[in-house]
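protien #1 (seq + structre)
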Amino acid sequence: MADRHSDSVKEKLSLSLDEIIALNNKQQKQQQKQQKQQQQQQDSPQQQAAAAPVRRRRNNAAAAAAAASPYGNRGYGHPYQHNGMPGVGYSVKVVGLPTGLPWPRLEGMVRRSFGHCGAIIAVVPRRDGEAWIQFSDVSACRTALAEMQNAKVGGQTITVERQQQQQQQQQQQLQQQQQQQLQQQQQQQHQQEQQQQQQQQQQQQQQQQQQQQQ
């Protein structure tokens, strides 16, 4: 190694300044090329691992809950929906449920509390403290509305609402929006009428001035 180093030193001494610079650049390029090859060899296993397809498990329970939810398919006009089919499931909304509990535990509490009302098809979480209960027949909904109003589930007082109440609220909101639009239109018409009156008055004044000048 010492002989090689001395030979390279002698070789550099015998070269001109331009040749030494060119030789140094060549050596630097070779070193960079070697480093790049080593880096590619290290990165290739990681890239293969990242490119490998990741298999995702289907959450059948979540899919079933989404299908059973009244919010799952909004295209149907029927107020009650179950598994994407209108007119099969009958739903009530429960508000005021305990919060901060695991869903399986809360679902069990709801099923035990409402089980006497009728056959429960599904209990679907809506948001924290709220859930939809889908019964197999409409009489169970009526029983739940009559007997479970202001009942306690997990120490919390709940209220039971039917889906029609929500539809009525939506209709009221639509009516309010329509009334606001009508009011805006009336205001615009009134402003236009005032502008027309002002223009007519200005024209009359101009005509009077012209007559006086004549």
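ok now protien #2
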Amino acid sequence: MLSGVPVVVLFLLLLSCVASLGALILAVVQAIHRPGPHLLNELSQSRRESADMARELRLELTSRLDALLQQLTVDAKSNRQESATSFSDLRASMERQLGQLRSENNQRLEDMRTTVAEKLEGTLERRLGASFKLVSDRLEQVHKGLGEMQSLATGVGDLKKVMVNVKSRGIWGEVMLGSLLDQILTTDQYSANVQTKANSNGRVEFAIKMPGRECADRCVWLPIDAKFPLESYHRLVEAQEQADIGNAEAAFKQLETFIKGSAKDIADKYLDPPSTTDFGVLYLPTEGLFAEVARRTGLVDQIQRDYRVVIAGPTTLAALLNSLQMGFRSLAIQKRSSEVWEILAAVKAEFIKFDDVLKKVEKKLQEAGNVIETVHSRSRVITRKLRQVQDVPDQKITSLLGMPNSEVADTDS
């Protein structure tokens, strides 16, 4: 509406100018058709009228512009007030909507926070529970392991106490040797604490009963003695771990002296051919100790050559005992071979008798077969003769023969 008012005013002003110009042109045209003095007067009058008209037009235009300006001012003020009111209403509405949106967002955020907190709390509780359970299980395992370690430490301490005493170490080696013999041989194939030499009071720990060559009832003993030089072996192992060649050589010299002395004792105290074998066995109860002795070049051969003593560890002694067990079995088979031949001879005689009886049975069976064949032939002849006889009903057969119907049916079938 405000933009349309100046256009109307300009249009009216243009119309006024056109009217004034038209009047002036009309006056000029009229003056042209009139005489000269009148023309000047009329032109002068026309100018005055045009000037007056223009002045009036300016005044009217000024008044109208003032009125229009006032109207525009009033309209602008009204529009500003309306705009301010509209902006106030819009701002209030926006603030109200923003407040509502803020409240809804806060509520949703609160709900989301509550949900997330509940889920996090549940997840945290589950994970913490699982973690605590895992830690508890691990602590229980650690506690159990500590108990086992304590038991192991106690056992190691007891074993150390056993190993410290020389007599206890000897007993332990003797127990290991007895266990190995018991696993491979029977109790009647070896004995413990045997006096193998007639003029000696020494008794060997174990001796294996070997069969005698001249008399089967008299046995030949194979003496086996267990030795366990723990101090020398530990000193040797520690020196080898520390790469101390000097101490290692000294420790092995001490171990070699002990092994040679033990082999000499076996040869002097327990070997007495022909009551015993011409060699004995020195048993070392651990594979590590046996490996250290066997590793020294020529030591085992020297002891076997000088003292007639064989050095054996757990594995080699087990192999020796297994070979002896196979020899015992072959000897037992050889002893029983005569009995086997006697049994075979008896079986042969009985088999000959059985063959004679079998021939007689075969003859009797053949005679019985001939008799049965004769009976079959006579039966076929009788059957052919009976075919000419007229058939009789079952009831009549029952009355004639005095047989029940079931027996008659069975006979017919």
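The longest strand covers residues 204-211.
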